[in-house]
Amino acid sequence: MNDAEVECEKRRALELQMHVVDLESQLSDSTLKFETLVTELEVSLLEKQTFLEAKVKDFDNDKMRYDMSVAEKDEVCGEVDNLKAEMRSRDIDFKQMEEQLNQLVSRQTGLVFESGTDKNTVEELRL
Questions:
Q1: Measured between alpha carbons, how far is residue 1 from residues 7, 34, 52, 54 in Å?
Q2: Is the pLDDT of residue 25 over 80?
Q3: Alpha carbon of 14 to those of 2, 5, 25, 77: distances in Å?
Q4: What is the number of alpha carbons within 13 Å of residue 70 lying toward its C-beta?
Q5: What is the pLDDT of residue 3?
Q6: Helices (H), 1-127
Q7: For 77, phi and psi rounded to 5 degrees?
Q8: Sign for the pseudo-dihedral over CA of 8, 14, 20, 25
Q9: Distance CA 114, CA 55 (A)
Q10: What is the dihedral of CA 52, 56, 59, 61, to 10 degrees?
């Protein structure tokens, strides 16, 4: 190998070293960008997880309020059904009492008529 070839190989080795340094720098930049992206994604994931946990908690609270409302509604419906049954029972009682009153009025009318007839008989006997 002559001097020119050695010089050519030295230049080539120097160029390759510079290219290696450049590639190492690019790798370092890419690694830094990748790590930054991973960190950003982790932060974003943590924020979304926190948001989701808050929404799940809100949902649980809303479900509990809904369940309580349904229970209250069922209780009120039960009370309404009881009141309706009580009203039906009272209506029946009122009808029975009205029938008894009509019978008593009819009986009283008969007694008054008989009483009038008896008075007339008494009057006639006195005369």
A1: 10, 46, 71, 75
A2: yes
A3: 18, 14, 16, 92
A4: 6
A5: 84
A6: 3-126
A7: -60, -40
A8: negative
A9: 86
A10: -130
Q: What is the pLDDT of residue 116?
A: 75
**C-alpha torsion sign, points 69, 70, 75, 78:** positive
The two structure tokens encoding residue 38: 């991973």
| Tokens coding 82 | 């009881």
Q: In angstroms, rounded to a whole number, what is the distance separating the alpha carbons of residues 58 and 18?
A: 59
Q: In terms of pTM, does the model score above 0.85?
A: no
Distance of alpha carbon 84 from alpha carbon 31, whole angstroms: 77
Question: Residue 117 — pLDDT band, cuts 50, 70, 90?
Answer: confident
Task: Give the model confidence (pLDDT) of 44-97 as tens digits.
Answer: 999 999 999 999 999 999 999 999 999 999 999 999 999 999 999 999 999 999
What percent of the chain is modeled with pLDDT above 90? Answer: 79
Which amino acid makes up residue 15?
A: E
| Tokens describing residue 29 | 């930049």
| DSSP label at residue 127 | -
Residue with tokens 């908690």: 57
